[in-house]
Structure formats: structure tokens, C-alpha cells
Amino acid sequence: MSSLLVDDIGELVTNSAGEGAGEPLGIRRDVALLVEDGRVTWIGPARDAPAADRRIDAQGAAVLPGFVDSHAHLVFAGDRAAEFAARMAGEPYTGGGIRTTVGATRAASDDELRATVRRLRAEAMRQGTTAIEIKSGYGLTVADEARSLRIAAEFTDDTTFLGAHVVPAEYADRPDDYVGMVCGPMLAAAAPYARWIDVFCERGAFDVDHARAILACGQAVGLGVRVHANQLGPGPGVRLGVELGAASVDHCTHLTDADVDALAGSPTVATLLPGAEFSTRSPYPDARRLLDAGVTVALATDCNPGSSYTSSMPFCIALAVREMRMTPAEAVWAATAGGAAALRRDDVGRLRPGARADLMILDAPSHLHLAYRPGVPLIRQVLHNGVPQCRP
Length: 392
Ligand SMILES: [Zn+2]
Prior knowledge:
By secondary structure, the chain is α/β, with parallel strands linked by helices. It folds into two domains: 3-66 and 350-388, Urease, subunit C, domain 1, CATH 2.30.40.10; 68-342, Metal-dependent hydrolases (TIM Barrel, Alpha-Beta Barrel). It is 34% helix and 22% strand. The chain has helices at residues 81-88, 98-107, 110-126, 142-152, 175-190, 208-220, 237-243, 257-264, 274-280, 287-292, 313-324, 328-335, 337-342, 369-372, and strands spanning 3-13, 27-36, 39-45, 54-57, 62-65, 67-69, 129-135, 158-164, 196-201, 224-229, 248-251, 269-272, 297-299, 359-362, 379-384, 387-388. The strands form two sheets. Strands 1, 2, 3, 4, 5, 14, 15 and 16 form an eight-stranded mixed beta sheet that branches. The protein has an eight-stranded parallel beta sheet with strand order 6-7-8-9-10-11-12-13. Strand 7, helix 4 and strand 8 (158-164) form a beta-alpha-beta unit. Helix 3 (110-126) runs parallel beside helix 4 and helix 11 packs antiparallel against helix 12. The chain is globular and about 70 Å long. The model has no long low-confidence stretch (mean pLDDT 96). The chain binds zinc ion (ZN). Pathway: Amino-acid degradation; L-histidine degradation into L-glutamate; N-formimidoyl-L-glutamate from L-histidine: step 3/3. 4-imidazolone-5-propanoate binds at residues 80, 138, 165, 231, 307.
């Protein structure tokens, strides 16, 4: 058994309720943390630190749990930089560009898709993301959805079948047939590689009846539910997710009081994706309203080539604080423990004995700097499963 001591931690964010100060972050000061076989096994005053095979000196910096990015679309080909430029020049976002990426993805080889996921996964890791969810959704044929998930599963346990991203062009005049295929042969081919099922429940994508049918089919074969909901306008997606016991409803940009009430009385997490509002120049979700109602909030990147091409959780934290009136502590919690809640995982997003040793050492004395110093590469070192990750 090899051991590694992270010593001289000035500020440790544990996210463990009742530990230390700074709720909800459970901040402890002047501590050390011991890692054995990929797990945290001890946290305590630096002066009491046990001997270890190796030592990392944090030099008084802040140490946080690794980010848990619970919403990412990494299996795709091509880019949509020109669409982004046109949007910044005034064209509205409708979601129609998804079909552009579908065409490029179908034409790509497995190795091309795998290389893109590997590149983006590494990019996210350098920015502190130690756990990530990856969706399919740019194949939209039985074979292309199955291979997207097979490739995604090489990089994460949290794979999500999103065959119901949009109705592909070849089914445009017969969406019922497409839903039947998603629930039938596509789900059968995808399910062995998927933990979750997701639907884009939105005007122009899937209506509530189609969304309910697809999610129910996924649940019937043991997949957990997530929903893209209420991004572009008000709608039934959030309440459908709560009704079905979804782990998370994602976007939540346009909510009614009934939506907020439903979330507040449920275990469903509201995952906010401010990179999408930034990149589509849209109004941000009202995080303050959700938090004040007692809803569990997560932050994630929505990394995708159309509406949010960022893998940076620190960027999302900065947006959440500046534009959505979350406190820095709420935003950091939402990007770590909140993401873990959205994936129903208790092994990541917190630092306590027994947790996976996923953490980051900042080039800063406090978690506050993640929002205070936007756009600055503040992640000095990342440990994933207790293993230090190389900087490029
Ligand atoms: Zn998404």
C-alpha cells in the first residue's frame, strides 16, 4: 500500500457538513490530508500528520475537492465557431445547429471521436475536473449512439444515452417513428454502455409525451433519469423530471413558481449551465430563487460544440457568482458536492476519510479566488484517484 501526504494546506474545503467553518464548505485550516490506495484515509492538524511514502507541500494554498462536471457532450466531430460568430452578431439560438454536428459525427471514425473526447477530458482535468458525465446525442442512429456511448465509457462511469437530443432530419416528418426507434433498438444497443438516460424536452425537440415515454423506457431497463428542461422557454420538462424521480433537471432557465415548488419538495437537483447562457447571449437562470427555496443546485459546463464550448468549471463558477448572484461558497459547493448529488454519487465531491482522493491545489490561498480571479489558470496540481496528474 503506497501513501501520499498532502501537507501544509492553508484552507481545506471538505464539503462535509458540520466540519470546520464556512458553511456549506466545511473549511478547515492548517491541516494535512493522507491518501492511501486512491482514497482519503486521514485529515487532521498538520503537526499530527502521519509518515507517508511521498509528500506534496501545498505551501499554505487552498485545497478543494475536484470538480464534478455533471453535464457534458464530448462525443462529437466538427466545430461551430462560425455559428457562434453569427450569434454574437445577432442571430438567435434555436438548437437547430445540433443537426450540423450530427452530420459531422456520423462521418467521423471511432478514432477521431475518441481523440476528441480524450483531448477535452484532459483539458477539463487540467482545470480541476476529476469526475465528469458524458452524453451521446450526436449520432442519432442505432449504431452511432451505441458507439458514442462505448467511446464515452472508456473515459467515465457516468455515461448518458441522449438519443432524444433532436429528431434527426431523416425523421423530421415522422417523430413518432423516431421515438419508437429510440425506445426500441436504439435503447437496446445503448443501454449496455449507459448509466443514465436524458431527453431534450423543449419546443423544437421533444414534447412532454414523447419525453415521458422515452424516459420511462430507459427506467424500465435500469437507467437513471436526467432531463434537459426549461432552457429556451417555460415548459413541462422540470415537473416531468421531478415526477419521474430524475437525479437532475438541467438548465432551469425559465421556471414558474410551480416548477420551483416541485423542485424544492424533491430530491431532484437543479443543474445550472451558465456557459450556455453566456455563449447564446441569453438571460441567466435565477439561482438565488432556487437556493432561497431550498433546492439543491449544481453547476456544470454543458461542454458542447454549439451552445457552450467550454470545459472550464472555474469559468462557470465566476459566471454564477457575477451573473447569478450565488455566493462564492455556494458556487464552489455546487461545482463539487452539487455535481456529485446530480450524479447520485457519494464517493466524489467531498474530502473526508473514505472519499476518492480527487482534489486540486490552487495557486491561491482561498476558494474565493476562483471567482475573484476569473480567466486565470489557478489550478496548480490535480490528484485523481490519488494520482498526481501531469501538467502539460
Ligand atoms: Zn446539454
